[in-house]
Structure formats: structure tokens, C-alpha cells
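HUMAN: Mind sharing a backbone?

ASSISTANT:
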Amino acid sequence: MFATVGGAVSLGEQPIKMLIDAEKGARICISETIMNLIWAPITDLKDVKMSGNWMWAAKCEGEGARLVEAVGGLCQGLREIGCAIDGGKDSLSMAVTANGEVVKSPGTLVLSAYAPCTNVTKVVNPALTATPGSQILWIKCGGAKGKFRLGGSALAQVYSQIGDDCPDIERFAEISNVFSILQELLNEDHLVGTVRKPKILAGHDISDGGLITTILEMAFAGNVSIDIDIQKETDPINILFAEECGIVLEVSDAEDVVQRFRSSAIECSVIGHATPEYGSDAHVKIQVNGKMEINEKLVDLREEWELVGDKLGEHQTNLKSLEEAKNVRNDCKKVQYKCDFEWFYHPSFIYHEQYFSTAPRVAIIREEGSNGDREMASAFTLAGFQTFDVTMTDMLKGHNLDGYRGVAFVGGFSYADVLGSAKGWAAGIQFNEKISQNFKVFRSRSDTFSYGVCNGCQLMAQLGWVGDEEDESESVTVFLDENECGRFESSFGPVKIEPSRSIMLSGMDNSILGLWSSHGEGQFSYRSSQNLENLKRNGQVCVRFCDDRGMTGSDYSKEKLPYPWNPNGSIDDVAAICSRDGRHLAMMPHADRSFLTWQWADSDDVNWNTRFDQQSVALSPWIRMFRSAYNWCND
């Protein structure tokens, strides 16, 4: 339940280069696939398996021969690198006749690689960390030494060209060596000041767009300044835009890492560093052979990079939200998390035999279309509960809640949300007399609690388990409407825990923590504006979305924060509410997916990740709410 093993998957495809040379393009597909997989610790390169998918107009003149060349290049490369294809799909009639002309698909190979991942917590992402003393390295491998070929590159396409000489892999053994060295480094750390940091802090393969795109994407993701100085006796355009195989690393111990690569005769250079200047304060300086080629503000370059995404966004996102997102992007610095309470404990007791006979019981309730039940069960188990998987089918068959102290309604899309979020689930409870009575009895007991997340939050609102209890209309007072941005939202962001009556959030007041949001209908709405005022006055608003400074909309004298700090548009940035007695908590974002530090999107930015007691069990502060429920049950 708490293992950190998993699976790693990557893709590789180079259709433009295959237009120039099908054989070379197939080999480049292999290198791209491997270099995308390299950031996850896997068992061994020989354990990597691939699926090969061919899209080709093989019956057209000359295309059959090109396909044979591509297959030959693929087989040669796989033999040299020691991987194998164990399946795939072929579409070899990719041509149609229209208006007397033959329109054919460019010959394309898409490789999908997969392998066992030994530790998901060690996976490296592209975001530069700007760790003090860190350096940025450029490793060029696989291709011919000294060559920077522009054929099939993004730069060529900008000028409506394809080119006539594309990159190739002449030395697959070198790629294997790079893979092996990096896999060793993924499991090593280095002392930075008083804190141990991974030797590999960030990494990105060089592919579409070339070296300059790789460097910029790493800076954009980290939201930090970069200073790059490249020394290479080649034209700067070729250096920056050639899509030759290679990787860029941010490392905490440059001396050791450079020595490791160079001792294997692999070209490795220190080319710069990142600085902890964020957002609008950040700059991008790239110097090549002593000449400053780029000296711009990070946010200006990033807006150029985001342009295509924003154009697509105009067709799927509320335009007001899209404009707000642009402003947030340019203003955002670094999220300042805050946690003043103690949450760590060692959960080894859950493996003791006595635990299974004395621990309070929680029913993890799910319906057709639900998900996240395993994460929810893991969180409650880690906190000390006995957890039981209970489906609504079980309830229909007479399963009773009398023996449980808590119920957890999980997230997902019950009945595919075809009637609206959680309405089908709620109807299944409300219109079945036995099930309805079962839940009513459970809720009326003073020794029970409930927690609903996402779809479960929507369900609790539909059932009236949370809401304005001063409202005398005897109707549901809280609704979860469609996100204001107009689309499903999946993002990780900060929230502020407010002082409230919630038993699960007791002692966590005023903390700023990160949470996953994953919903299309998460906007808290009310039967009347007075309902929200009553909820606030009675301490029933438990969690609010906040920005990177830990501020909510009211701190700026505004109705709510802009998107995406507030991902659904809820007035007053409401993210969770509870019942007036504090026993029932309904939350749209997912604490059940954030109770371990490595589940956080920016886990490297939380200082508790460096605590000694976190070395064996990476509990995040969110475990405190599940543990608080456990302590409440035992009081």
C-alpha cells in the first residue's frame, strides 16, 4: 500500500526528420525515447521494452523502400542499445485520393517505452531549482562529434524549410553509458550547507527546438533566472538550435558529475547556473563564444512560449480566466508554504497484530465511476484506522454502517456525472429507503465523522450533510457548480487552512499547504448570499484557496482570487466547509492525494522534506487531519 515502486513510460517520435532520412529518423526516435525515460530510476536498460507504431503510406511509390530503410535503422539501433520491441500497431495504408491528387501521411514511427521504476520519489523533473552552488551541465552524446545538424529542426520549420542533413545516432554505446551513469546519480545525494540534496536536481532531454529550447523550458518551469555561457567553436545558431541527442542537467556536485561523464569519454560541459530570482524579477542571459545572444526578462520570453497554448485556450477556456492566468503567470514568484504544527509520527504500529482488533473502523464508500479509493484508504490506514472498501452495491445488499466510526466519500465521476456531479450518487441514497435510513442513523450518532473529497464533497452538499444549518428552508443550501473557467481543472496549488469547527483540521489553523484540485464542477454556490455569511460566522468555512504569498481574495479587498489561484471561481475562495458541529468535512481539493511529500508537484520546495524523521516515511502535514480524526475517535 505504501511502496514507492512503479512504472516508467516515455515516448519518442521524429516525423520531420524521417522526411529527410527514414533510417536516421528511426534511430533518433530510439534516442528520444530513451532520453525521455532516463529521468526515472529503473531496474536496468535491458528491462526496457518498447511498442512500435508505424503510420506509413507503404503502397505509394518509393514509400515501401523508405519503410524498409526505417525498419533497418530501428533494428540496428535496438540491437546496439540492448532494448526490444514486444508489440505495436501498423497503419500502412495512410494515403487517400482527393480531387485527383494523392494525399499521403509522412512516414512516422512512434515508440512507447516502459520499464519498472524502482523508486518514484527519485524521478527528476525539468524545473530548475536554483539551489545554492548548483551548476547547469550540457551532455552531448550519441551523435558524431563536432556535428550540429539543423535538418528537420524546429528552426528550419520556422523558415518553411525541412533541410537536407538531419541528426543521427552514430554511437549508441555512448547513449547506453550516459543512461547508466545517470541512473547511478539518481540515487546519490550531496551535502549543500547543512542539507543533503540530490546530485541531480533537474534535467531535460535535448529534442524539438534544440539546446536553447531545453534551457528555456527548464527556466520557465522553475520560474528562475539563468546565466548561460557556452564555449564551442561552432556557429551559435547551430549550437543553440541543432536537435542533436543530449541532455541538460542541474546538479548539486558539478565536479563529481562532470568527472563521471568525462571518465567515460562523454562530452560534458558546465554551461551556467540558475539564480533564485523569481517571476518578474528573473532574467535570461545566454552567451555563446563570448557574445551575448539573449538578455531578456524571463516573463517576456515565457509569454512568447505560451502564445500557442493561449490561442488553443481561447477555444476551451473562459476568456476572463485566460487573461487572469496570464497576469498570474507574470506576477507569480515562489509559493511560501507555512506549517507551524507538528504532524510527524512513525506509523509502524499499523503492522502490529493488536492494531487490527482495536483500531476504529472507517468505510471508504464508492459508487460506479468513483476513483481515488485506494489513496483514501492509504491515508486513513496510515493514520491508524482499519479501512474497509464499501460499494453502494454492498449497501443495496444490506451492508450496515453501525460498526463504523467514520465514512469517507471518495472522488471521481459517479455515473459519469451525466446528471451533474454526484446527483446520481445522491439519488441512489435518497430514493432508497433502507440506504437513506442507514446513512441518517450514522450521521445522527454523536461518535461518528465523515470526510468527502471532490465528488464526495459534491455528494455531501447534495445530501445536506454540510451547509447553512441556520437556513430554515429545509433545503440544500450549498451547491457545486461548473468551474468559472469553463473547463475541467487539474492543478496543484496552495490553500490556507482557516480557524474552523472541523475536528479533522483542528490545530492546523493558518497553515499554507499545497493540494491537488481535479474537478470540473467545484465552484461553491449558495441558495442565498446569507448562507455563505452564516457559514463564515459559524466557523464552517475551513479551507480557502490562496496565492503564492498566502493571501486570499479578501486580503486584497476582492471577492475572490484570480484564476488559477482560485481554480473554480468560488466566492471567498472557499475550498472546504464543515458541518456546524465540525464532524463532517467536505473538501473539493484532494488531501487524500497529498498526504505524502512526494505526491506534491513541488515537493522539493518544502523544507520538511529535509527533516531526518522524513527519511523513512515521507509524511506531509496533511496526514495530521487524518490523524486528528483518529485521535478524536479515541478521546
In short: The two ends are 28 Å apart (CA to CA). The mean pLDDT is 93.
